[in-house]
Amino acid sequence: MKPSLRLPAHRPYPGFLRLHLMGLAGLATLFTLPAAHAAPSTADNRLDPLTVEADKKDDDYSVQTARTATRTDVPIQETPLSIQVVPKEIIEDQNATRLKDVYRNVSGVAPVKTEGRGIQFEDAYVRGFSQRLSIDGVQLYTMPTLNLAGIERVEVLKGPSSALYGAMEPGGMVNALAKTAEFNSRSSLYGEVGSFDSYRAGVDLGWTANDDIALRFIGDYHDSDTFRDFLDYRSILVAPSLTWKISDDTRLTTWMWYQNLDRPVDNGVAFSPMGYPVGPITRNLTGSRHHNQEIEDSVFSAQIDHEVNESFSVRARALVHHFRGENDAFRWSPGAGNNVNAYLDASIFGNWEYDFIADALWKFELGPTSHQVLAGFEFDRTDYTYQRLTSSRFPVSIFQPIEPAGPLVLTPGNFRQNVVTETWSGYLQDQIDAMDDRLHILVGGRVDWVDQYSRPFSTGIESWQEDTGLTGRGGVVYDLTPCLSVFGNASRSFNPNNAGSNIGIGGETIDPTTGIQYEVGTKYSAFEDRLSMTAAVYQITKDNVPVSDPYNPGFVVNGGELRSSGFEFDVLGKITPNLQLIGSYAYTDTEVLNSTSLPVGARFANIPLHSGSLWLKYDFTSGPLQGFGMGAGVFAASAKSGDNNGSFDLPGYARIDLAAWYRTELAHGQDLKFQVNVMNALDRTYYESSTSTASVQPGTPLAATARCTLTF
Fold first, then answer.
1. Which range among 192-201, 490-499, 587-596 shows the weakest confidence by mean pLDDT?
2. Comparing 19 with 519, which gets the higher pLDDT?
3. Bridge-partner residues for 618, per DSSP?
4. Angle 589-592-595 (CA atoms, 0-180°, nearest 5)?
């Protein structure tokens, strides 16, 4: 029988025993695989790092591989899943400053409104379901707003990912990959000014020593007001990294982020109870004080890769994440009539996360088929503490707001607590090529043992919860021609409910939510694989959603069922040596199938039925305009429900962005680039997301930035 989790110091702690047993089992698996007898291969078969090393031109949008889908370097065209990539070249050309400005380029992904919540996490809706951000394949429980200066690329995997990554929502995952030290890197310095008194400066410095050690240091400082009254922003990023080729067969990669953020807590604007905007998008209902959140966040990762022989390689990686945030901000929720209920929030949040993963890749041939078998285990621990201090609630008019007068007395809130989660996991995956490399099959599964401990400080009542998840996925790609293929897949998800909440009438915990997806589609590549397109139709059903117990108020039962289905299209790459693009379209039909908490038949909040984007880039490489370039894009969405009850809608919109740049080479080989970006060039008023009529997030109005970058 699996032992129970007992996390307080006075209780036994068998979790580490289980970790040791799994570690021994994993090592036994690694060293008993018949690697020495595998068929030789002419390819480089080492297990590729999860980080990305530059292997293409600095301005090239084309992407052939994405490691998020399989944890290996199999080409996207041979992967029977929908996986989209936004490389750093697009991030730089669009001068994206927020993660939601990056994934708006991908079909079926929409922002979650977190600006007015206790912590501003980097959450996203993928195919209708909210998902936390992953960093290099690790889903982090408390990841604040990212400084994109440290990001190499963003990969979006559509559909359930639990068969490889564990407990997640069924829509998919957004995975940000860190910039790491490279052996072919250059250094750069940059400075930027922009609208709303925005100033930015940074460095990206690289060194190499004896072709064995590469070092990199990224530093970025950003200070800005915003278009919202009384709200400003400051960010400091320090990101060193090291890559060490210990031998021809062994490589160590380490990197670290340290972020210091002073961010606004932005509740957004209010709509009337009838669902119409009230006042300008600049208005802040509670005046000039108490609007910020101070955050210190650090991530450290160390990974070692070793190639045992041409067919067998192993990898181990440890990641540590520490988060601390402190609020000094007014927050509010819907109130009576034309008021919101406001209160002062001085909560403190702290979190330590530890993740260790070890796996092995064995490549071999069996008859007419070739295989890549990935086997591994993972341990993850999260220790989250929430100390809540709030004032009593008071009404604020949405039509004639008045700055609250003090003093405001702070008292401990009811939701102060400590939550500790530990997960032990093992996974197995096989990628099979057959029929002269025209048929590609993916099968895999994972088992997760999740133990949770929760203790609210207000009551001191301890809760323990254990859940087990067994998930799998399978898919097939068939190449009709060298450029055109068809694919299909089925996959399952698993996600436990939080300990100490969602309790049944008998005190029992509620079963984890589960999901299943069915998807079929086609992939097309053109211009010698420089341009890739993916089109897919899918259906995801999420079951075991906790809903209110209709016979016992205050308790819940597993009775909810949600569905998301639709069509998606993505295109990325280079049409000519001068013209490149990224584009997307999504039709996302969401529906509540069964619930006592939500209206049956209602659409999910913040998910438009239609959404899409198109960004084009053109560089002049000859003639009198040589060195000049330009970009233009449109990002659009139809109307969407503003809350889960369907009580009001956010209107549709189309936003146009523009960019222009000039590159020149200086006398000593340095490159100098001047770039201007204009966001929302037509100054359209639009609304990105909401939680209720009291808290709607408006989009940025007309804004511009000018940047100068020196590369050497």
1. 490-499
2. 519
3. 579, 630
4. 175
528 vs 426: CA distance, rounded Å: 38
Look up residue 247 and give its amino acid: S
- Calpha distance 27→360 (Å, rounded): 10
Q: Are 380 and 408 in contact (CB under 8 A)?
A: no
Determine the residue type at 231.
Answer: L
Tell me, what's the pLDDT at 414?
Answer: 64
Residue 207: how many other CB atoms lie within 10 Å: 12
Token pair 């020495």 is found at 36
Helix (H, G, I), strand (E, B) or coil at 18: helix
CB 264 within 8 A of CB 282: no
Structure tokens at 648: 């009001």
What is this structure's pTM?
0.90
Number of helices (H) and strands (E) in the chain: give both, helices first. Answer: 4, 38
pLDDT reading at 152 higher than 90: yes
24/79 Cα distance (integer angstroms): 32
Residue 382 exposure: Cα atoms within 13 Å on the Cβ side? 18
* DSSP annotation of 100: H
Query: Is domain 67-711 annotated with CATH 3.40.50.2300?
Result: no
Instruction: Kindly give, in sequence order, each residue whose CB lies less than 8 Å from that of residue 376, ignoring residues fewer than 6 positions away.
Output: 26, 357, 358, 359, 360, 426, 427
Dihedral angle at the C-alpha atoms of 47, 426, 317, 168, nearest 10 degrees? Answer: 100
Which tens digit of pLDDT belongs to each residue from 104-139? Answer: 999 999 999 888 777 778 899 999 999 999 999 999
Reduce the DSSP state of residue 90 to 3 states and report it.
helix
> Which residues contact residue 474 at a Cβ distance below 8 angstroms, ignoring those fewer than 6 apart?
441, 442, 443, 444, 489, 490, 491
